[in-house]
Amino acid sequence: MIKIIKIILLFFLTLLASAQSIEADEKIKIGLLIPLSGKDAYIGQSIIKATQLAINKINNSSIEIVPKDTKSNPESTSRAAKELEQLGVKIVIGPVFNENLMYLDEFKDITFISLTNKIIGNKKNIISAGINASSQLRTIKKFLELNEINKTILLIPDVNYKDEVKKGVSNSKIKIFKSYIYDSEPTKLTKQIEKITDYPKRKQNLIDEIIRLEKSDEANKDRLIERLNKLDTLGDVKFDSIIIADFNESLKSVTTSLLYTDIFPNEKYFITLNQWFDKSLLNETSSQPMYFPSINKKNYENFKTEYFEKFGQHPNQLSFLSFDLVGLVYYLLFKNDLVVNETIFTKKTMFKGKIGTFEIKDSKISHVLNFYKIENKTFKKIF
Predict the structure, then answer these.
(1) Which three-class secondary structure state does DSSP give residue 152?
(2) H or E element that contains 363
(3) Phi then psi for 248, rounded to 5 degrees?
């Protein structure tokens, strides 16, 4: 009898081991190419923590995240991708930086969901998941149409992402009255803004009008001259809104130059790109109201709170995106019966993440964003 029990027990142990082996074999590995050493290691560490939060919420033991260190250079990224390939990984979140995509087209059987927002020149196996210019300009276009804003000028700094902005204009089909490329160097910038806004002509218009009134016999000319002396220019410009494709101090330099040339945000719409709710802009009251497209602010604040409570640190912005990308990949796999193949990213589908809505089609990702206004030192949601 004891011998029979031992045989039965051995049979069940063997069966359990086989089941565990099958479960292990069925694990779906998602690669993570991030900087874990060097000056950008803090970004990678923040992304890992965010993916941990995402995996905990998914609560499916068949999904496994496999992180590898890119060391923020193309060669190390390629070596890390090779290691993932040898592990049978077919989907990779990352790398973070656009320059690290250089050699990844060699890995034909892997799809890389990069955190970059640049889309120009991407290879077939690279999907850009960042908040790209096309998504942002589509959102701005919606705002312009809702408010019947018809003459928009676009100011683009002469920097490495200028072609991405031009591509975004084309993809979004936004109507731009005129586009200008400007030099961010302050002295050159001011002169360019003066030219764009016809400042010398409007300045001369004021001088000419004051002289005309002084020579006239108009009964109320003294009162009119007194009023004109409080102005800096006279006459309007040919646009009703300005999109400034810039960030940080350079953005502030542009708005300062616009104010100097008598272009004010209560008369012309000041619109810019996604600012990730840069709090320093709240203090720029002379440039308010200012408008911009962005991610869902409420969800972003909730994520930062949850992240801090869990890890005692503040998350990097990119970690919020990586949190959503884990959910996106799982969603697409679930819809595909957890089968990893080339159709996952080609089918037209939508995924509602914390950032906003992801639109996936033909191995491309775009975002449906919210739109905000900075006014009275607060961020206000428009739509």
Answers:
(1) strand
(2) none
(3) 55, -140
* 154: nearest Cα among 131, 125, 176, 133: 176
DSSP for 119-136, written as a single string: -TT--TTEEE-S--HHHH
- CATH no., domain 133-197+237-294+371-381: 3.40.50.2300
| Pair 205, 233: CB distance under 8 Å | yes
Phi-psi region of 341 (alpha: psi -120 to 50; beta: other; left: phi over 0): beta
Which position has the token pair 């086989």? 18
Task: Domain 2-130+298-345: state its class.
Answer: alpha beta
Residue 54 burial (10 A CB sphere; 0-12, 13-18, 19+):
buried
pLDDT (tens digit, 9 = 90+) per residue, 30-83? 999 999 999 999 999 999 999 999 999 998 888 999 999 999 999 999 999 999
- Alpha-carbon distance 301 to 315, whole Å? 11
pTM above 0.85, yes or no: yes
Name the CA dihedral angle for 321, 327, 329, 335, rounded to a multiple of 10 degrees.
-150
Of 280, 313, 242, the residue nearest 379 (C-alpha): 280
3-state SS assignment for residue 380: strand
Distances (CA, A) of 92 to 71, 81, 85, 117: 16, 9, 10, 16
218-253 in b/e burial notation, b at 16+ Cβ within 10 A? Answer: eeeeeeebeeeeeeebbeebebbbbbbbbbeebbbb
- The pair phi, psi for residue 347, each rounded to 5°, is -70, 145
| Element holding 91 (H helix, E strand) | strand 91-93
pLDDT at residue 4 tops 80? no
Where helices occur in the chain by DSSP H, the ranges are: 2-25, 41-58, 74-86, 133-146, 162-172, 186-196, 199-215, 221-228, 248-260, 297-311, 317-335
